[in-house]
Amino acid sequence: MKFYxxxxxxxxxxxxxxxxxxxxxxxxxxxxxxxxxCKSTFECQDLKTFNKKNLNESYDEMFLKNLFDxxxxxxxxxxxxxxxxxxxxxx
Length: 91
Hints:
This protein is of the alpha+beta class. The protein has one domain (6-89). Helix content is 16%, strand content 46%. A hairpin with a 4-residue loop joins β1 and β2 (16-22). The chain is globular and about 35 Å long.
């Protein structure tokens, strides 16, 4: 998955929602729960399966949720070994 556009991170009691837009169109709408990730383009996957398919199976199950739940202005996760770069900048 590669995205370089603006989006929103919304935190709710039971999940964190990540929405990314390009030219006003949602290109990613993902809900991250404690036990699964749901995207609008496919059914929900448990966290381990999501990591294996989209990141790397070595990633901790809570990696994605913990990453988006951080309240820092800028977050950079660089994994050269698996060629993964995640940058989050909050306005």
